[in-house]
Design brief:
heterodimer; A: alpha/beta; 2 domains; five-stranded mixed beta sheet; 7% strand; B: Rossmann fold; 10 strands; binds adenosine-5'-triphosphate; binds magnesium ion
């Protein structure tokens, strides 16, 4: 059901006998009802009028008051408190027995307010953030990574510590299900890249170099990077969300108390799956990226497939295959580790799940790009 | 004058996935009384409450809440009905993104024109009623199970609703908190004339607060009446429930 913008609470909540009040001598006589709606009236309008009068003493007489609810009681004490601040002594008097009882039940006369926890100043906050970043992010990430890698070696041939068929399951989720999108995206990017370059190459009469350009760009940069970004978006978020949900619903606690280590049971299979499938995804990306480039070359520069393939054989180096493989393993680790790291860090219930999922994706894509440039320098 | 009925259910039948959960449930709750719905786990108590609140569409039967037939309400009537109900959900259902104080103050801020500082005092007072003033600025995720329950109750009574629904408010509370919660419910009933419909398994609670008992067994009402009659009932499930209590007392 959607709530209307227009607020009209009045009719909904109380009956129509409103509060009326009369000021005589030092006494304010209240009659009618003092409930949710009228409390607002008392706390705003009546208070304003009374403060303007600045009486030295005031009696709030409730003899003619018919009914009061908890907000009404609080409104009386609120008025009393506000006037007291201005030096007026206020007393609440009269009222039927039931009204007096309500005053007692709801009347925390000087409600002790709990103050908002103090805020630290900016320098302290900055220092806190820096300390927090190293102690909990960097350190926490390293500890998780150490744990995950340790167990993924230690448990390599111990199948009991994982759910049966879980690695295959995860391989399907992380790898197989991503094939179509990786294929399509790298094809389009290869195509567009070659299309834009072909004009420039034509100017210099260097048509054949479209092959060099496509093969180099796709194999050493675009293929692995596109794949990693797509997998981070698809599976990085899924991993973070899954682990975070498990933490929020106490499933992780349940695993632990059943003697199953969440890292070995949940994270390690995902890491295996990602490490295994990532190279294949990158191969798919490379093949279709180059295919896209070849298509553009054929259309715009009349480079026939035979020519393209011949030249490709000359351009391609074994080193590129090795780079691709190393990159695939690094990216897969980054994505799985970042996803799980943020999944484990979830706070504040279900709402936190969405938050850590978003952060996990942003951070893993950034880390992938960072790693790409570092690896690019190393393998240049 | 015969007390009015705040809740009237006739022939409520409901199923989930072909499985019949409620079978021809009929009962009523009177104004100014505490009506307790009893029944084993999975007997359909929460499902009955969810029907009363219109959270599950009615497929068969007739339900009136505060004299309104809930099956054909306009949007405005529905809203006005909701504003007269306080609801305590079985798992608390506090909003996790708000502090406890903001949770309790939410209906007051949204539906009344009370100035902010007064709302804050009302909230503190309500939290005081459940002995939780100190949790004003805490987030629900920072509370213990019992504290969550009490905070949720404070939110349910934020607007002094004429009718309060409670799904197992006492579960998981220590006996002392439980007694003060019962006293609070009695006070609300006596002083504000609040009617209460609650699900509870705490026999000590039932003895303290219940005026009227409805016993559900596998989706059927097997007993409806006063506490004294319930204790004398020959219905096997009801008898079993209260005999456990008698044994405890010995
Ligand atoms: N959304 C749902 N879908 C399918 N079945 C449901 C659903 N909600 C409840 N049920 C079934 O309805 C039955 C009654 O559930 P309900 O939650 O009303 O029990 P309850 O009496 O409140 O139990 P408890 O005391 O444990 O809270 C159960 O058998 C439950 O499996
Ligand atoms: Mg229930």
């Amino acid at each position: 059901m959607k709530l209307k913008k227009k607020k009209k609470p009045l009719q909904y909540i109380t009956n129509d006998d409103r509060l009326s009040y009369r000021y005589k001598g030092n006494t304010l006589y209240l009659s009618g009802n003092l409930k949710l709606v009228e409390s607002g009236l008392l706390a705003r309008n009546v208070l304003k009028k009374l403060s303007a009068l600045k009486p030295s003493a005031l009696f709030l007489n409730l003899d003619q008051l018919e009914d009061i609810d908890s907000s009404g009681v609080m409104a009386l004490y609120f008025v009393k408190g506000k006037l007291a601040e201005k030096g007026t002594h206020v007393e609440i008097e009269g009222g039927s027995e039931i009204i007096r009882e309500k005053l007692e039940l709801f009347g925390y006369e000087n409600v002790e307010k709990v103050s908002v926890p103090p805020r630290r100043n900016y320098l302290e906050q900055l220092g806190g953030h820096v300390h927090h970043f190293f102690s909990s992010y960097v350190y926490g990430f390293l500890v998780l990574a150490a744990n995950v890698f340790y167990w993924s070696f230690a448990d390599l041939f111990r199948r009991k510590t994982r759910r049966e068929g879980e690695v295959v399951n995860q391989a399907v989720l992380i790898g197989v299900n991503a094939v179509l999108i990786v294929l399509f995206m790298s094809f389009v990017i290869g195509l567009v890249l070659a299309m834009h370059s072909s004009g420039q190459l034509q100017v210099f009469g260097a048509n054949i170099f479209i092959v060099d350009l496509t093969v180099l760009a796709v194999m050493s940069q675009m293929g692995p990077l596109i794949t990693a970004i797509l997998v981070a978006g698809r599976s990085g978020s899924a991993i973070a969300a899954e682990i975070a949900t498990m933490k929020v619903t106490a499933e992780l606690d349940a695993l632990k108390t059943m003697g199953l280590d969440p890292i070995r049971f949940v994270v390690v299979p995902k890491l295996y799956a990602a490490l295994i499938t990532m190279p294949f995804l990158i191969i798919v990306a490379n093949v279709f990226g180059i295919f896209g480039g070849g298509l553009a070359g054929y259309i715009y520069l009349d480079i026939t497939p035979e020519v393209f393939i011949n030249r490709m054989g000359e351009v391609m180096q074994n080193k590129d295959l090795l780079t691709g493989f190393v990159k695939s393993q690094v990216y897969a680790s980054i994505i799985v580790l970042t996803g799980s790291f943020y999944g484990f860090r979830v706070e504040r219930g279900a709402e936190g799940v969405g938050k850590v999922t978003t952060i996990a994706v942003v951070v893993s894509i950034s880390l992938v790009i960072l790693a790409d440039s570092i690896l690019g320098l190393i393998f240049y | 004058m015969e007390p009015q009925k705040v809740v009237e259910v006739k022939g409520l039948t409901a199923s989930f996935d072909e499985k019949e959960i409620l079978k021809d449930v009929s009962f009523s709750a009177k104004k100014g009384e505490v009506t307790v719905i009893l029944g084993g786990s999975g007997s359909g108590k929460t499902t009955v409450l969810r029907h009363l609140l219109g959270l599950i569409p009615l497929t068969q039967g007739h339900i009136e809440v505060l004299g309104k037939d809930i099956s054909n309400l306009t949007e405005d009537e529905q809203l006005s009905l909701y504003l007269q109900l306080g609801v305590f959900y079985q798992n608390g259902a506090l909003l996790n993104s708000l502090t406890v104080g903001e949770n309790v103050g939410l209906p007051l801020n949204q539906h009344s024109k009370i100035p902010k500082p007064l709302v804050e005092e009302i909230v503190t007072m309500k939290l005081g009623l459940v002995n939780l003033e100190y949790a004003y600025h805490m987030f629900p995720s920072q509370l213990s199970g019992g504290m969550l329950k009490r905070a949720a109750l404070a939110r349910a009574i934020a607007m002094d609703p004429p009718l309060l629904f409670c799904d197992e408010p006492g579960a998981g509370l220590d006996p002392i908190s439980l007694e003060s919660l019962d006293n609070l419910i009695l006070n609300l009933k006596n002083l504000l004339g609040m009617s209460v419909l609650m699900v509870t398994h705490e026999v000590s609670s039932i003895m303290r607060v219940a005026d009227h008992i409805v016993y559900l067994d596998e989706g059927k009402v097997v007993f409806e009446g006063t506490v004294e009659n319930a204790m004398k009932s020959d219905e096997p499930s009801v008898k079993a429930f209260f005999s456990v209590f008698r044994n405890q007392q010995k």
